[in-house]
Amino acid sequence: MSAYQTVQEIKGIDVNIAAPFRCILILRRKTSKTAKNGNPFLSIELGDSGGSFNANCFGDSDVFKALNPVAEGSIIRLSGKTEYYQERFSPRLQAAEVIDAAEAEAEGMMSHLIEIPPESEDELWAHIVEGVDAIQHPQLKETVQRVLSELGDRFRKCPAAVSMHHAYYNGLLEHTTHMLRACRALLPLYPEVDADLSIAGIILHDMGKLEEYEGEFAAKVSRIGTLQGHVVIGFRIARKAALQSKLNADLTERLEHIILSHQGEKEWGAAAMAATPEAVFVSMIDNLDAKMGMVQRALRNTPQGDEFSDRLMGLQTRVLVTPPDKS
Prior knowledge:
This protein is α+β, with helices and mostly antiparallel strands. It folds into two domains: 7-112, CATH 2.40.50.140; 121-299, Hypothetical protein af1432. It has helices at 7-11, 62-67, 101-106, 121-134, 138-157, 171-186, 195-204, 209-212, 223-227, 229-244, 249-261, 277-301; strands at 20-34, 40-48, 51-58, 75-81, 84-85, 88-89, 92-99, 213-214, 220-221. It is elongated, with a radius of gyration of 22 Å.
């Protein structure tokens, strides 16, 4: 038996017991804050392949001193006691230290740290290849092929978000594949929507995230991600490939519009509101899979026996994870 526990194992401990635990986790988020009394503290998120939790580290604690200089994405060995506050897991951390990947591997915990989708990378990628093959317009197909030829390896590994949905290794590949499946299932219901543009737009819609995010074990927003954002970066990637492929002006503009509008609302980061059949279609599928991705992750990661997940920021609620009673 391992000397360390996973997030699911820790959360599975009886809520009425203040139980000690030891674990090796990724420091996913760290925010420096100031309490009402003027004292500094850290608000952190720690996680592994099966979930995460948030905790506060106050300025007079050893954990604060240990983690204050540490970068997000670092591997942390820590110990503490389980506690709950207002029915929310809120552990008391007692000790923490940074370790490297080699030590995590030697402790037998490295394989537990990296969250990946249920389907393998190769299975997901096969659906992308199938989607490209389904594009009939030669220059539109070439445009997508050019992008994947240049960026495909990074696309296969990248997370789809920092924290909201599909925020893990291969997450962007999974999100795009799920969108592509939904697209091809729904296209027969909407003959007004052009299939080629929709498929191309879905495959390319989030390519800007390859530049927007950085980090090996925990994604964070890069310099260019902060200054431009993935919508603008993705627009430039698509335009370059379209010009190289000699895609006509109308299709280029429509493809760019899908990328510029796919976030759905300007306050969510869209550069324009969806104004073509294909842009509306892609935007709605993107929103659907983003939210269902949150649900699927909650169903996977909520400890067995719990009725509800933790509160999901993207859904602004907890999710009921018990299956329907169909007796």
